[in-house]
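Possible regression after last week's pipeline update?

I re-ran a chain I had predicted before the update to compare outputs. Posting the input and the new output here so someone can diff against the archived version. Not blocking, just want to make sure nothing changed silently.
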Amino acid sequence: MLFIFTSDKHKFEYIYEKYKRLLWTKAYEILKDHSHAEDAVSEAFMRAYKYLHKIGDPDSGQTISYLVTIVKNVSIDMYNREKRVTPIDISEHDEADGFNLEELITSKDEAATVMMLVDSLSEEHKAVFLLKYAHDMSHKEIAKVLGITENNVTVRLHRTKAKLVKWHDERRCSDDK
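New output (post-update):
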């Protein structure tokens, strides 16, 4: 961290040493995880550093309230982010849904028709499907390339495959008539 004035550096070090345990305790109450609590405290101190000029007396109740408010908000944000992303066993989803692209496409005509259907998908579903099956990328790689979560990749693939299977079954039924 870069401090313009030595007094700011001393003020920050004093605040850090005096309140780090209190802030960690508050973060841990929310997150229930030691390393996440440490991350929340680090982020809170980074924000406090950014607004160090707003902190007057480091021993005042206002300073304590300000720091506790920052760490609570950071912790709640982290908790909500973690809660939103529920881990999924990706390998389980690939095999368990019974989707087999090779079985779906049994002829050149069907391959062309499937590609037309893939082209008619929304861009977000088409991109995930093509990265998975044309480029043989893992869910993690697809998530990184598209800037989305692995969970989102799984959901998009599932929906796209469901559309293709439904189309295939409808076509098979109409051909049997």
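Follow-up from reviewer: compared with the archived run. The chain is about 75% helix and 0% strand. Marking as no regression found.
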